[in-house]
Amino acid sequence: MIDSLKGPQRSPFLPRFLGGCGRLALRFLRLLPYLAVALLALYWIGRGIDRLIVAVFDQSAHEVAAFWTMRGKQALMLVLLLLLAAIFDLARILTALEDRAHMIGALLTSSGFVARHLGPILVLCAALLLLGLLPFVPYLLLAQGVLPASAIASLFVLQQIVML
Q1: Mean pLDDT of 107-123
Q2: Domain boundaries, the chain
Q3: Cα 114 from Cα 133, distance rounded (Å)
Q4: What's residue 106's pLDDT?
Q5: What is the mean pLDDT of residues 82-102?
Q6: Which residues contact 8 (CB under 8 A, 6 or more apart)?
Q7: How far, in Å, CA of 82 to CA of 127, rounded?
Q8: pLDDT at 76 (0 to 100)
Q9: Which of 76, 82, 89 is nearest to 123 (CA)?
């Protein structure tokens, strides 16, 4: 979408046509090393929290507290992933709109913007996530309430209907 707005007009001649198709795509690939580092950092954060939870709740009788602590950790990781997605999406948009050649500047600018507008961005990302997961609600309700546990074929058919 951004490519079609900011790129050159498509032409029937092959060199100009290829120039208009994905001019910024290779530039977006420069964000991948930064994304890999950020995802690796999120992995280590999650692993550290897991170790902390095990150290606190291992061999204890507080099963309910351990359960809710793990759910809190999952919610924290989901929020961090949503923020990371917002930062990298905004960096891609800045790269296209401002015709940036250096990705670190786009990442720093988008990180600052996301940090300044954290609340509305989290609400927007959560709303988009919930809208994306909304088609699965009927599937889950029917799978849990109507179908028996052994109805694998019916569950498969229901899944395909929901996906269509």
Answers
A1: 93
A2: 2-133, 136-164
A3: 23
A4: 87
A5: 86
A6: 16, 19, 20, 23
A7: 11
A8: 93
A9: 82
Q: How distant, in Å, are the alpha carbons of 42, 73, 102, 113, 161 from that of 84?
A: 9, 16, 19, 12, 32
SS3 for 21-73, per residue? CCCCHHHHHHHHHHHHHHHHHHHHHHHHHHHHHHHHHCCCCCHHHHHHHHHHH
Mean pLDDT of 127-132: 89
The 10 Å CB-count burial string (b at 16+, else e) for 34-59 is: bbeebeeeeeeebeebeeebeeebee
* Residue-level pLDDT at 137: 79
Query: Can you give the pLDDT at residue 28?
Result: 75
Smallest Cα–Cα separation from 145: which of 134, 158, 135?
A: 158
In the predicted model, is pLDDT for residue 25 greater than 90?
no
Distance of CA 60 to the CA centre of its chain: 35
Question: Which pLDDT score, from 0 to 100, does residue 38 have?
Answer: 94
Q: 114: how many CB neighbours lie within 10 A of its CB?
A: 20
92-103 burial, b at 16+ Cβ within 10 Å, e below that, comes to bebbbeeebeeb
